[in-house]
Design goal:
With 524 residues, the protein is an alpha/beta fold. Helix content is 33%, strand content 16%.
Amino acid sequence: MRLTGITSLASVLVLAGAAPAVAQPHPPDPAAVVRTDLGLVRGQAQPDHRLFQGVPYAAPPTGDLRWRPPQPARPWQGTYDATLPRSQCAQLAPPYGGETTYGEDCLYLNVTTPARADRRHRLPVMVWVHGGSNTTGSGSAYNAAKLAADGDVVVVTVNYRLGPLGWLAHPGLETGADRRYQAGNYGLLDQQAALRWVRRNAGAFGGDPGNVTLFGESAGAADSCANLVSPSAAGLFHKVIPQSFSCATPVRTETSAEGDAATLAKAVGCDKESPAATVACLRAVPAKTLLETFDAKGMSAGPVAGGDRVLPLQPVQAIEKGRFNRVPVMHGNTLDEMRLFVSLIYPRPITAAQYESIVRATYGADADAVLARYPAADYPDPRIALATIQTDAGGALSSCLHQDAFRLLKRAGVPVYAYQFADRTAPPLVDVPGFDEGAEHATELTFLFPGLIGDLNPEQARLSDTMVGYWTSFAHNGRPEARHAPHWPLLRSPDDVLSLAPGANGIHRTDTTKTSNCAFWNGL
């Protein structure tokens, strides 16, 4: 198994620790100095863009601030050095590469602007929420220079608390001023704090705080969907782009999340006589122990739907009831989402008999119908057949569940633009020998953030230009458009999904309900 783009991700995830702001010994480049509401920051000025890294948007969530909503960062004297990224949030390295870190001082963001942007301009702002199962990743891993320079937008990439430190839902945490918050949504609240920082400071970087697009991929898309329906995020953004995670997907329930928290507390020796004593014990447990225990127990991280002002309803219920932030939505997935995960679970070939056994164990009485619709003989590799089933139906990344979200949002009366990234020659996240990764999960990212996962050939580079045009024009005016590119229709019917691939006729309308057999799956 060969790691492709993730090895380059690993190199940028070896981030510098948080450093105090100090006055600079030499006169800074005036073009790279901006006054924020907390003080001056100095970034780097390049010919086509400016970059400000590691800017604090909230206080370090350490000590007694562990598992509390983000608190205000302190102002500084002098000029803050924003020329280097700061620490990623505490995490264990994922199986496809990266770095393990245990530092909790991590609530930083990065701002990329076109070279000409300043207070006289009011450019759209795009706020990126990275993926990684809400357990790994960093905003600094994403080079937004192309989006900013070619799309004439300001891009903000955000760190937020991960794993047990961002998503632990112990009821003992709901005390005092925090009683109004459902425990377990600290990562979500971090993202909302970053959006509030954008509202206060976008103008200083040439951005328009009244034109903010929230976008994210995978877990970042799940969080974007949660923010879409969160009352506490109202007014913080004006458009949203969830990539590869359907907004019709259920999030964790209060009961299940609190059950996980109780299990974790017991596993680390903090199952005490009272909730307050349990929380006090948990706050003293080293981050390393929490991360390793959380991982060993196979726990999940992500938003929690509970009876509070952050996420009172499941996203699908909130959309159905019309109780969500009504903004234009651009939403989609990749053609072969689940090939990534199948290749990680089955890095070696499986036989047709093994494939049949897996399908029967999964689908029970429906297995004969599934095997008849997806016979192993129709695919070059039984693993491809298995991944096709999983991509078509049933999971958060599936094409049919994305169509459910498109339909719900359209019915709710907001503009919806739908896509499916379909370049089966795109650089894969993980290169498994003898396996065709196709347009697997995350392959669209390098077309928006060049260099993230491998290199692009000339045709793919042209597709990248087009996608950047679509994404940033949506940020400008709520309509995805690009020069010399096909029209992207407003979703009115299931065949208004725009397929994105390189080459002649690579961009065209498609009906993913048909290509993914959604009527078949809905009939089971």
